[in-house]
Amino acid sequence: MKKILVLYGSNRKEGYTAKTIEDILDGIPAGCAQIKKYNLAALDLRFCTGCLSCRKKPGCAIQDDMQGIYQEIGDADVIILGIPIYFRQMSGQCKTLIDRLFPLFGPNGLKLGKKKLIVVYTQGFSDPEYYGEYITATTDVFKLLDMEVVAELLCYGTSSNVAAENTALREEARLLGKQMLNL
After folding, report:
1. pLDDT tens sequence across 45-65
2. d(C-alpha 108, C-alpha 28), whole Å
3. What angle do CA 149, 151, 155 make, to 5 degrees?
């Protein structure tokens, strides 16, 4: 049975990030996956202090909910990460998570194995290319962490009717869920 870890990086529980991820999950055949979901806004995730303790010994010196997330990442076969783009940057919750993944990088990093990653980006602008360079740069960070980005979905036009009318994206998300067992 596939173990799927879902990390939502938005405070909006009914927003487009959550809806797109739920469409992916709806596509997964019932009983074929163990799914754990975490809303980053509901967790006690403190900022990376840049102490570099993780370079001296494996793990992070900060004791908060991230310790459990490291374990969940290690256990997962597939990670789905929802990244809303606010004001030309990912949400603060996502930035904190990604900064706290630093102990996974480098020769003394936590050994969690190569992970498959699906990233759901959402943006208010209706031009799907508007944040293209930012999305590419973010994907490069995941590659540094030895994560295999197997799919990226972009829900654009969330501040207009463009996103609400994008039935093709919803279908693509459900199809991705159906394919999840083959990842």
Report:
1. 999 999 999 988 888 999 999
2. 36
3. 125
Q: Are strands 78-86 and 115-123 parallel, antiparallel or unpaired?
A: parallel
Q: Let me know the angle formed at the C-alpha of 36 by 31 and 41, rounded to the nearest 5 degrees.
A: 150
Q: How many residues does the chain have?
A: 183
CA distance 82 to 7: 6
| CA distance linking residue 132 with residue 112, whole number of Å | 29
Sign (positive or negative) of CA dihedral 142, 143, 147, 149: positive
CA 89 from centroid of its chain's CA atoms:
14
The Cα–Cα gap between 16 and 29 comes to: 22
Query: Do residues 158 and 123 lie in contact, with contact meaning Cβ atoms separated by under 8 Å?
Result: yes
pTM above 0.90, yes or no: yes
